[in-house]
Design goal:
The complex is a heterodimer of chains A (about 100) and B (about 280). Chain A is mostly helical and about 100 residues long. Helix content of chain A is about 90%, strand content about 0%. Chain A has three helices and no strands. In chain A, helix 1 packs antiparallel against helix 2 and helix 2 runs antiparallel to helix 3. The longest helix of chain A has about 35 residues. Chain A is elongated. Chain B has about 280 residues and is mainly alpha-helical. Chain B starts with a helix and ends in a 7-residue tail after the last helix. A two-stranded antiparallel sheet of chain B has the order 1-2. In chain B, about 70% of the residues lie in helices and about 5% in strands. The chains are: A mainly alpha (about 100), B mainly alpha (about 280). At the A-B interface, helix 1, helix 2 and helix 3 of A face helix 1, helix 3, helix 4, helix 9 and helix 10 of B.
Chain lengths: ~100, ~280
Amino acid sequence: MASENEIEDRISRLLWLGVATAGGLCLLGMMLYAISQPSSQAYSLGGWSVMAGIAILLLTPAARVAMMLMHYVRLRDRDFILITLFVLAMMAFGYFFGAG
Amino acid sequence: MIFDLVSAFVIFAVSALAGVIGALVGIGGGVILIPFLVLFEGVPMHYAIGASIVAVVATSSASAAAYVKKRLSNPRLGMFLEVGTSVGALAGALVSVLMPVNVLEVLFALTAFYVCFSMLSTGKEAGRAEGRKPDSLSDRLCLHSSYEHDGRKHEYEVRSSWLGLAGSAVAGILSGLFGIGGGVIKVPLMNMGMGVPIRPAAATSNFMIGVTAATGAAVFFSKGYIVPELAAPIVVGIAAGSIMGSRLSHKVDTAHLKVLFVAVLSLTALRMLLQAMGVSLGF
């Protein structure tokens, strides 16, 4: 079973990975914007790249909460299982309420 | 919304500067970025908030990664307070997308004045929570923790967890409404209200901001207020700036920078307030 320190290291790695991937995709998109015309295929590819980066960025904190949920499930810490599930539900509602 | 290359470069440069200043004076970049986008680039308020909230997720996730590794954050306390911030952020964002722009601008300007006041009062670490005992909820959830500083281990006990939860909801509402991190409320709340020392309070606030901002950002994302052409230079610029700023933080005397920042932010907030009321100052 992972200790508190191990889970903190995993969270740190996950956050770095999420931010680096999202930043890389946004940078790629920005470069495609800079070298292409707004009506070109490269420009729309840039848009997709940025949106993928933003989606990864917004999912990174949710992935962190999910990782903590798994940790609390392993610890059978009922209070924190409920807390993390509640926070995940609020994050999901954000998307669904906004889209509605 | 398509920006020309010059505008995109200017937005990138200002975002990088906001990242540097934010890291040096201890705030997120949203409070700098939103007035710039609205007043100088003519970006509609809701799109400016959408871009800012994405930038807040980027900067807080990057700095949280470092703080968690250094064992400064208190993940259990952060997770508990996220109950309040996530509800607040969801409510704030849902209200924000429906709110008339001028009302939003007035409220943002008032929040910016509060940020100025809060920044001038930092450093007066008050021990208001010291006389109180940890409450039963803090004990039950094992929110007490420790951190290392100057080679020594410092243990602390968390008090007034219900107050913390309520205050976090207020911070979440502000984050969802204006696309800011809300650290200006969370850090003093944890420090003065809950007895958490300033270093773990700041680190735990950063740990929470990603979740808070992502909850609000989901609403702006699904409403189409996050535009890739605007978000890309802001995310890249502010992330690069905040990394640079955190490296400079040990070398730069931030006292004078804080005063200058407060002066500029106060003027910008005043201009935004007057613009919302239909008055032009001509600067």
